[in-house]
Amino acid sequence: MNILITRPLIDSEDLMGKLFSLGHKIIHIPTLKISPTKTESVDINKYDALIFTSANAIRNLKITGEDKSKLSFCVGSITEKIARQLGYHNTLSAGGTVNALKNLIMNSNQINEKSKLAYFCGDNVTYDLDLELKKEGLKVSKIINYTSEKITDLNDQNKKIISNHSPDIIFVYSLRSGESFIEITRNHSLYPLMTESKVMCISKKVASVFKSDGWKKVEVFNPGEELLKL
Question: Which residues contact 120 (CB under 8 A, 6 or more apart)?
Fold first, then answer.
């Protein structure tokens, strides 16, 4: 199969290696440029727990009073893996969705209405986790520590690869990434080459963007299930 990955290389290298070892052809077209924000360091000693909805939120941490034993809620296994690589060992993973992350936090016996939570995220989110938690009576500080910029251009080499090897499956990991990819296909007249491509989206919201744009084969998957969807 020809499989197109839209995630940045740092987040997709392991998956790409596994797919390649199974004999698949990998097309890597990153759709977002991630950059740290210019913010002051955050004193995490002021908080009882940390919340991470992406690996980028962890990679771009700028903190003081670093406490590796701090309770850390992670949206999924990849985010938790990065947190543990940085030394955070008291982690809990929600399994891949922000809604599941909210439920994990709400059902934790280590969190109550007096707890103070630091929520690290990017500038573009599709689910207002902080507001949802505040509705439940929790104290949450939203800290934007990275930005995502759409990549809508495509170099000649990648355009040639797609033209010669149209993807059978396309994996898309965020709403913003999906919007960016659609812009790429429009800007470079690539959609006719992908009429048989199956777009695997990380959520129903992302899938709806592709369906409204006319893509016919659109499905939803959970992070970590990529190999099961082939």
Answer: 50, 51, 52, 53, 57, 58, 60, 61, 143, 145
What CA–CA distance (Å, rounded) separates 204 from 13? Answer: 25
The answer to whether the predicted template modeling score (pTM) of the entire model surpasses 0.90 is no
In SS3 terms, 100-111 reads as: HHHHHHHCCCCC
In total, the chain counts a number of residues equal to: 230
Please name every residue paired with 163 in a beta bridge, in sequence order, or none if there are none: none
Cα distances from 82 to residues 55, 72, 78, 193, in angstroms, run 6, 12, 6, 36
Q: What is the mean pLDDT of each run of 10 residues along the chain (230 residues)?
A: 93 91 95 93 94 94 86 92 92 88 96 96 91 96 95 92 94 94 95 94 93 96 86
- Interatomic CA distance for residues 84 and 79, integer angstroms: 9
Domain spans, the chain: 2-31+152-229, 37-148
CATH number of the structural domain 2-31+152-229: 3.40.50.10090
Residue pointed to by tokens 């990849």: 78
